[in-house]
Design goal:
This protein has about 70 residues and is mainly alpha-helical. About 40% of the residues lie in helices and about 0% in strands. The protein has a domain of about 35 residues.
Length: about 70
């Protein structure tokens, strides 16, 4: 909160009752523009590169490898 309100003004807040402080902080929070505090908008995701099929090393499922070992 010290970013929004300098330290010397906090003395006035100490005098307020809890209910009054809550009401004041809610009123102040409604006026804050959150878009001003956004660091950077997220850009689109990069597409994953296509897998290259290599005929020298074709994919073999684990189930087939296990079945061949049992034989």
């Amino acid at each position: 909160m010290f970013i929004a309100i300098p330290e010397e003004y906090w003395v006035e807040f100490r005098k307020l009752l809890t209910a009054q402080l809550i009401k004041l902080l809610k009123m102040l929070s409604k006026k804050v523009k959150l878009s001003r505090f956004k660091k950077h908008p997220r850009g689109p995701k990069k597409p994953k590169p296509k897998r290259v099929f290599d005929p020298k090393h074709p994919h073999v499922s684990t189930a087939k490898l296990i079945a061949n070992r049992k034989k």
